[in-house]
Amino acid sequence: MELLLLITLALVVYTYLGYGVVVWALIKLRPKRPSVRDTPDDFFPAVTLIVPAYNELSCLPAKVANSLEQHYPAGQIQFLFVTEGSNDGSDDYLKSVSPDRISVLGGSERHGKVAAMNRAMQQVKTPIVIFTDANTQLNLDAVRNIVRHFRDPEVGAVAGEKRIQTTDSELAAGSGEGLYWKYESQLKRWDAELHTIVGAAGELFAVRTELYEPVSTDTILDDFMISLLIAGRGYRVAYEPDAYALERPSFSIIDEQKRKIRIAAGGFQSMARLTHLLNPFRYGWLTFEYVSHRLMRWAVTPICLPLILLLNAALVLRGGAHPVWSLLLLAQVLFYGAALLGYELEKRQLRWKPTFVPFYFTFMNVCALAGLVRYLRGNQSGTWEKVRRADTVDALT
Description:
By secondary structure, this protein is α/β, with parallel strands linked by helices. The chain is built from twelve helices and eight strands. The chain has a domain at 28-253: Spore Coat Polysaccharide Biosynthesis Protein SpsA, Chain A (Alpha-Beta Complex), CATH 3.90.550.10. It has helices at residues 2-29, 60-68, 90-96, 113-121, 142-147, 172-194, 222-232, 253-273, 280-283, 285-317, 323-347, 356-377; strands at residues 47-52, 77-82, 102-105, 128-132, 137-138, 155-164, 204-208, 236-247. Helix 1 crosses helix 6, helix 1 (2-29) runs antiparallel to helix 10 (285-317) and helix 8 packs across helix 10 (285-317).
């Protein structure tokens, strides 16, 4: 029982701390990869910015303005908004603004985001395409900064950074989400420096048009699948933290829970479809990063955490256990107690900083288990249910 407890503990520690340390150490031992910041700023290939926008009329004026203001030669960038199935007036609005620069791909039926992306790619004539969500705002150098990585012929895709806009008065879910993405962004920097990042965020990522592979329309995590398929073909997926998308946190804990469970179900769906990447003899560093950064976090740690608590409690309750196990059990009780308190405060729309990390960490892993159940039941579709976001704040920097 002690051995099993030690193994599960080691897996969790490796997933959230050890992997980052190992990657950091490997980077220090290898020659540093040349930085795109050292290259001349004269690389402006033709680009198409694709924005899936189902019933996003409330977001479109800000998104259109933000897109047109990008610091990129106007003659080298096109904008394609995909509004199929929208019935909120999105088509009419988009057709009335800058018709010389903005194209609209509409349709009366909604087939889902992936089907819309596959359809939109048939219209693209530029060598590079950038995907971004309608409810996000990009920094004005985003396109310029993300495109410069394609100077390197080994780069097949580039992921931007997702940033969560929070204020001092945000609830724990939003603040915890922001802390999580800061940590995740650092890991992506190290992954990219070692070899490749393993999965782009759909809020902002770019691909070489010729490398785009249409994915099944029931795919939940299209961004993850598209970028991993490109990495599996031997190309690197670069990371550009100076190209970022700002997004507000979920409106409530219920909205965030729906989003997290769906993403977790999508993670298990993706893992089932990417089993070929588990061959280290063929994929080398990609397999190492994929297993350590994704598979461990999505499929292993959420199962290990309840096992650790149960094994620890069993050791202490049977008597004669080493004092370290009693201290570990006490630490777990306090940690999950803080998480439960954070959850109760969240439901009452109250907040307390000491509960941010315990609450969001526990919440994230509980949602992962719920996502596993949903995936196994097979009751998940590829059509996104729109999640409410907190009110917009002026924080574009």
